[in-house]
Amino acid sequence: MQPVDFAGISVPPVTPFHNDGSVDFDSYRKLVRHLLGANVSGVVVNGTTGESPTVSWHEVEQLTAIALDEAGTKARVIVGTGSNDTASTIQQTERAKAIGAHAALVVVPYYSRPSQAGLVAHYRRVAEVGLPIIAYNIPYRTGVALDPGALREILDLPAVVGLKESTGGLGNTMDLVASTKKAILCGEDLLFFASVCLGGAGGILASAHIHPGEFVATYDDLKRGDLARARARFLRLVPIIKLLFEEPNPAPLKWALAAQGIIASPALRLPLVGISDGLKDRLAAALALSGATAG
Fold it and tell me: In this prediction, what percent of the chain has a pLDDT beyond 70?
């Protein structure tokens, strides 16, 4: 495997849809260009923010091709390949490797609630594909969390290059940055600043769709040691981060992107539906206050 640096700010792009439910590939390309123009380090195709449960693998391949085309050598392209079936996860990881992805984001198997030994065995098998793997620990969605011992076993696998940590706390980050050189990436947007201060390598952040350049600048300030400047930047982002998660992701985000003209429509695929009028009003006000045009 070629060494790839997975530090910095990566964004999991939404999957824009036309009002008839088909994928709006033109809007997707425009969105990826918008993110890369802000110098994000990576894009994560087929994440939950991209409505992965409702997007077919054929569509994923088309989205990945666009991301790779736009990214060139400027940024890495990571593809979400995880499921609660190890065989399917292996197959999708093989396909991601074949189409040129730089890494796969592999979520902890959901719903089945495997034992810790089963979770380790799952990652061990997927790692055999030979594509760099970023494990994704998000018990809120999966129903099971990786315990510290399992995390260390998984991070010791040569093909596992990092962890997206989304447990809602900082305990794992504090423990792991002291015991591994692998990339510990924040997946809880409000904890991003604290995570990097503790030694985290960056984040995979849905809210970085909005003002991505400010997220990148916050990370760069922290890496330079300018804590005060980074903190001031991040605190300006906090109100929008909070609003973007008031209702199920990515509905608020899609509305905000459409309001700015970055994507053509805020359409979602069921079972997700559009946001409330009250949240629209508050998001529009927050976007205007932050300098992002809405309306």
Answer: 98
Cite the active site residues.
Answer: 136, 164
CATH of domain 8-224: 3.20.20.70
DSSP code of residue 137: E
Strand partners, 162: 134, 183
Q: Residue 133: beta bridge partners? A: 104, 160
Q: Domain map of the chain by residue range?
A: 8-224
Evaluate whether 263 touches 23 at the Cβ level (below 8 Å): no
Cα dihedral 101/107/112/116 (nearest 10) = 120
Question: Residue 4: pLDDT band by 50, 70, 90 thresholds?
Answer: low
Task: Give whole-number Cα distances, 80 to 18, 95, 103, 148, 217, in Å.
Answer: 22, 11, 9, 23, 26
Asked whether 43 and 75 are in contact (CB, 8 A), the reply is yes
Q: What is the pLDDT of residues 100-112, one digit of tens each?
A: 999 999 999 999 9
* Inter-CA distances, 52 with 33, 134, 156, 224, 295, Å: 21, 17, 28, 35, 28
Q: Is 180 exposed, middle or buried (0-12, 13-18, 19+ CB in 10 A)?
A: middle
pTM assigned to the model: 0.96
d(CA 140, CA 47): 15
**How many other C-beta atoms are found inside a 10 Å radius of the C-beta of residue 284?**
17
